[in-house]
């Protein structure tokens, strides 16, 4: 990585109160607090995670090599996480909100557990089982292909034509959809990695390219740290 490289940092939001809820055994039909609620905030644990991420990002992107744009979704937890990171930087990048970075929409089942769908909507649960997690679209919600379509559009309209360093503070599924677009992750692998939580809270994934005509390539943290400030 050199200062001639354009860098893209993908960061998952800090641990949220909804994450707290989903970490508990889901033995009821509804979550007490749902991740589909845009107003859900970040826990103290999540803020500490953002602080650790910001220390690394401040080193990778000093004032003489700054992040130009920070992108967030419409969810408060991405705004809060981005704000926590930005306050550790010696400059203020532009903060931009784009709904195409939102988490996948669950529609009518926005606050229901799998058990709730199975017991209260058995016909939909059967359809989910028949189609699989990749193709199934809940009533009023999205399937993964809907998510892929909007994240592809975001990359095409906002990332491909950008020139300065970019950071996206987003959600697990939408970040995996972006990774799919940037490096060709298989559709089924997006689903698998989502369910095994392959992107922990406040985790950073870095990409670099030489210019707009170049493809984004995954950048290891070791490579980024080793060359920071050169």
Task: Give the number of helices.
Answer: 9
CATH superfamily: Phosphoglycerate mutase-like
Helix/strand-derived category reads alpha/beta
Low-confidence residue ranges: none
Structurally, the number of domains stands at 1
Order of helices and strands: EHHEHEHHHEHHEEH
Judging from the principal axes of the Cα atoms, what is the shape?
A: globular
Distance between the termini: 9 Å
- Could you give the order of strands across the largest sheet? 3-2-4-1-5-6
What level of helicity do the residues show?
40-55%
Calculate the mean pLDDT score and round it: 94
**Spatial extent as radius of gyration:** 18 Å
Number of strands: 6
- The percentage of residues in β strands lies in 5-15%
State the major sheet: 6 strands, mixed
* CATH fold-level name: Rossmann fold
Classified by CATH, the class is: Alpha Beta
Examine the secondary-structure arrangement and name the CATH architecture.
3-Layer(aba) Sandwich
In short:
The protein is of the alpha/beta class. It has nine helices and six strands; from the N terminus they run βααβαβαααβααββα. A six-stranded mixed beta sheet has the order 3-2-4-1-5-6.
Descriptive keywords:
230 residues, alpha/beta, 9 helices
Task: Report on this structure.
There is one protein chain. With 230 residues, this protein is α/β, with parallel strands linked by helices. It has a single domain, classed as Rossmann fold. The protein is 41% helix and 14% strand. The protein has nine helices and six strands. Strands 3-2-4-1-5-6 form a six-stranded mixed beta sheet. Strand 2, helix 3 and strand 3 form a beta-alpha-beta unit.
